[in-house]
# Entry
Amino acid sequence: MVAHACRFVLGEHRVYTMRRLWLVFAGCLLWSAWGQESAARWLQRALRAEQTLTVAGVRLNTFQMGARTEQIRERFWRRGDQAIRIEVVEPAARQGEVFLYRQGQWLRWRTGEKVAYEIPQMPYLASELLEVASRLMQNGFLNAEFLPDETVAGRSCVVLTLRPNRPIPPRGRPVAPGPPPRPGERPDRRFPLQAKLWIDRETGLVLKREMQIRPADGVIRTEVVRVDFSPRLSDDLFRLPESVEVRKLAELAYRSIEEAQRAAGFPIRLPGYLPPNTERQQILVHRRKPQENPLVAIRYTSPLGRFTLFQTYKPRGSAPPRPPKGRVRAYFWQDGDYWFGIVGDLPQEEMEKIARSMGR
# Structure
């Protein structure tokens, strides 16, 4: 009788324990589902804020590649995603540089000059990033993680980390039905390796974002350090002076990677190895057609000879670049959606060594 009672009690205990385990497991599932749903709602709220709010302020862009860090301080004025003005404040060499966005077109102009240039859409505007993130999350391609709240520009922010949880479909295949791309927007834009967003609790505006496109591409960070949610903005703020001529962008030369990055529209990748005493001379961004990604050419000189590193960003299956004719040495290769080429006087083994050092 006692043994029977013991078996009964132990059996009831096992059933009770299994029930508790099942409730805990079900609770975890519900919490995970609620977290993903809550993240989707914050993304939608942030997207609406980016598209509709009129704001002004100061922001700091940081490009971090290994131990090297470059910063650009900018003033900005915007009417949602319809009209934007950005003025570079620092570094001093770029003061007076202005970027204007209106009617689907970006313009680059320097104060006092008589010519402005059309440029491709800048990479990863917050509204674009949020649109892509929302579509990917709806289709189960993103995991979201909430981190403790932080303060940005004196305002309380929700902190959200987003990471793809599986390979995203190849370019050219829509992830989800959506509106057609806007003028200048690449329809096959993909999500970065990871993104971290600081979303203002009161307004939904993204006050800080941090992205890493690929493991070797470094980190791109944009942080609003001062913000005004009730500015008075005139239409003239988003217009060029009448005397300024607008030209199509064909080829522009830049002194730094950070300057060229805006015109390129995709993350420019750099080699981890260069021959000793190599010096970078110039960076050219060449665009043949407005709807195409440009060709970036980085010119170097070294004791072994002059050479140029080319790169562009094309979907898989595109035709590779044609090697140049003549006696010049050349080496071409593909890495994912990137096409690379080295042309110049370097020995072939040096070209291959540079190619192997390009981060993936």
Summary: The chain has a mean pLDDT of 78. The longest strand covers residues 54-65.
